[in-house]
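Researcher: We're reviewing a set of sequences before deciding which ones to prioritize for further study. For each one, I'd like a predicted 3D structure that I can look through quickly. This is Nucleoside diphosphatase. If possible, include the structure in token form so it fits the rest of the review sheet.
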Amino acid sequence: MLQMGKWRYGIILDAGSSGTRVYTYRWLNPARARTEASPDELHQLPKLKTKKKWTHKIHPGISTFGETPEAVGPNHLQELLDHALDIVPPSEVEHTPIFLLATAGMRLLPETQRAAVLNEICAYAREHTKFQLPDCNLHIQVISGETEGLYGWVAANYLLGGFDSPSDHDHGKGHHTYGFLDMGGASAQIAFAPNATEAAKHADDLQLLRMRTLDGKSLEYKVFVTTWLGFGVNQARKRYVEALLEASPGTPELPDPCLPEGVEVTTDGKPFQQESKEPHLVGTGHFTECLSKTFPLLDKDAPCPDPPCLLHGVHVPAIDFDVNHFVGVSEYWHTTHEIFEMGHKDKAYDFKTYQQRVNDFCSKPWDQIVHGINQKQWGKKVDETTAMEVCFKASWLINVLHDGIGIPRTGLEQTKAGHNGTKEVLDKTKEKGFRDPFQAVNKIEDTEVSWTLGKMVMYASSQIDSGNKSLAVGFGSNRPGIPPDFQYAGGKFSSLPGDLEEDLDWHDALFTDSSRRLPGFFMFVLIVLLVSYFLCGRDRRRAISRKFFFRKRRPGAKSGLGLGLGGKLFHRGVSSPAYERVLESGAVDEFELNDSAELDNPYHSDSSSDVSNKVGRTSGWATPRNSNFELGSSHFDSVAAQAHSVGINPLGRGGLMARLDSRDRLVGPVPRSRSRNASPTRARSPMMSPLKEQVD
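Model: Here's the predicted structure for Nucleoside diphosphatase, in token form for your review sheet.
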């Protein structure tokens, strides 16, 4: 039978508008994880791991294959599959699920083209790999912005510890999760769990999200998530330029305060050619004016059919910033850290310091900025395109955060001249964790905060056996049970070869609905009886032995007591008194124990054939060991021969042979003598009664 390994793997392809990135994740086999987990860890989600080299991105996006879907496999997908196959062990490939989840770019394709591309991807993956792909509709699909935001919320809280250690993230009012903000090129998302009052007031607007901890119990949260189409940085810039053109129709030169002074570009951001007669933008480098001109793009005045609303008339429950602390990824990170926070990877967002740095940068003449780029003043990743775009992006981000969503402007309080706000917030972050109203992040504990991680966390938790006591893992409308629109995390629990049987301990076998339950019960009863027998004292054990195992012989039989049940199974020619007198008549006070370390692991041996040593060290018998003593064969052979005659292997009865062996060893010659009081302390079994000297 094929045995599962220690690890489970999962593959996710993030098919965005500009390219596709493959992520590989790994987590401990759930059955093994249960046996190794501490009591606290049993109440936690599976622990997923990934590495930077397990991620690979290629360009362009799969949406470019809308008219040639047959080419998406060999020209795009194969390179990503090869990368995943280099990471997942060959023996685990057929047990490893693969998902391709497409976002913005594929949403724009016509329905027929979108379906053709997705069908071709699924067919190609099934034909050219053995990855687990049971349901094309579930594993290969275009996801909504809301779903993307929800997965991001799961990823952020998973990495921050809001799920596994709620007491360590108590924000007040019984709240322990973090809000999530994401901004790409086309859209922006927000996801958070409202406080109890708002959750009750807007219950129909929330998503019920369910996961499963290692002990098989459900973990449920009610989350609000929404997306703003057209509010990503690229689409916002497009709307901004359109507004400039509408405000000055027919004007060849359009002053743009969001571009550094001296920059001239076309309306689509390309370098302007002087001979062109098309309208173009001329940078003026006035960042304060840039903030004013980008504010109307928030569309705060749009009708709000379902109050309250934030941007563009989109309903959002009121945010309690006393308990809702947000982390922002993607553009929130790049725009705040690529230039202005280089060297402060985990620094909390300080509005005052950030705006000052942006204003200083955007006020520089373009030729001075170019010189700084050539000197790597802002790092190796900053080129002219990045520098040209950052002023608009920074103004848009500030407006969305503070005037749009309402994040408090941390750092605007009165400060002394020369005050280092950045250092203060950085130190504060180390003390408080992510407790500020907003914190831009890229990685947490060296793991990228990506919505793909959230998706895989949900899948991994769905593979934990709940014994049919927990509802399915996934999300849907805020309704009890499984609502009609429920989206499963990737499949129900299924036991794979080697998953559970090898990892069940005696407690699982005895007290769960395991196939081992009945044998486990008898094993438990046998253990209790044995423990009681060894703890009842030597005299009582002797009485029990004579009552149940020995019987008087019939008149005319040979003298002495015959073995009862024991005699039938093992030995008919050895009487009980001779067996008991071995210890009494031997030189009891003249023996030396081996080091106690040898008894610590009675079943460990470099040679599996050393059966006598294993038997002689059976648990419960602290057998003295004399390295120069050789056990005579006549008595032992007699026992073995007679046992063999009835089909019994005496070595399989560890307790009896251990006692026979140990008592026979005591009567042999001892090379050197040491008194009992001078002997080393013996490693005793808790079930072993002290040896007593008997006097006839």
